[in-house]
Amino acid sequence: MIITNKEEEILFSKYRIQKVLKKSDKNRVLLAVNHAMGSKRIIKEVLRDEEGYESLQSEVSILKHLNFSGIPMIYDVEETEKYYYIVEEYIQGRNLSEIIQTEGVFDVKNTVFYGRQLADIVSYLHSVKPDAVLHLDIQPKNIMIYDRKLYLIDFGNASYSGHLSEKAYLKGTQGFAAPEQYQGSGVDVRTDIYGIGACLCFMLTGIRGKEGISRVPEYMGHILSGCMEENKKNRFASADLLSEKLHIVEKQLIFVPAGNSKKEKNNTDRNNINNPIIISFVGTQSRIGTSVLAMAFTEYLVRQGTDVLYEENNDTEMVRKIVRKNENIRYGKGNFYYQGIPIRPLYNSKKIRIETSSRVIIRDEGVFNEAKEYGNRLVLIAGISSWEEDYTALTVNIMEKRVVLNPQDKIVWIWNLNGGQGDEKYMPALGVSGYDMPYLSAEGENLSDMVYKKIAQQLDIRI
Prior knowledge:
Largest sheet: 10 strands, mixed
Strand content: 15-25%
Structural class: alpha/beta
């Protein structure tokens, strides 16, 4: 029963309409009060045409099975001959779009704080059994914030992953919807990941779409890019992984003082007064190809005319082994010259003070040690076989903490793959992109050079 007069409108003898929040030809969103209980409710009223009716019914069928903080509850469903109604929990506060418009963009700490809440809500949706719930319209107007609490609202475009309809492709908000929603190339949980990333970017910059990524700190840019890759295969594989990445940043931000401008650690050679560029090659574990790759990269730079030195900074004694097997190796000023490549062994004696004028030093650090100091340019060689994943995941987390504290750091990942072709590979389980290790061969030499050139560019080495 609907009662209407000049002063008020009452729905079903219990909901007094206070305000029309949204209105179109076919629907209204109303703010109402249950006059018996005195509690506020949101009422969605939709004309019972096929599209609106089915959309609202779909929203009801999803929301009534959800129970998670940050998702509105359904209290009632009503129908008349003309309209269909759902009565939902009233979420106090303002939407993200209004907040950014009136108060400006968020800082990194607040963005990460709210981003984790959003990722956790979406993670819950994606964990629903037997079919994940896809929201498919994660955008600022559907995010409410009140008293440091984030809510995800408006499930009108939501769908179970096993019951996707054409609406999943036709709807979505420009600048926040993933490309596949317009291309019809198949939506899945990674479609929502894109929406989260776009909202985080909007929080930080006020800009719709990927254009804002270049304006955020590099460590946040890595996270946003991991959400908003055009190819969904290259996005974070899950909201859980995204939440984990944000948690790493959140913990490290506690230790970042205002205006942090930490000087480069260990970026000056311990026996050198000329401030060379130092690149640390580090393996996640032993016998993973760190020394071979460091030497190959040094050889590449030599061929490009770069004044470079390979420096051993581990206890494998690889340089001394090379010298013992090659009697004709030339020696001068603390360096040996192997096939035209200057190489320096580890000199453990503190009495030995050897200077170098090399512009670039490739420092072979051996196995990663969290207690060891490295330069601000690192190449990490990582194993990704099942028995190596734990070492790699641990090192990834440590490196991600590091770049929050030291935003100037530059880190390149190399995956130790059998028969690698030097391709760039995104590892969904790690949320990190890198190159597979280019194995040397006569026909593969040019391919290796292409990878080494990309590495040099990422590390800001001018060739």
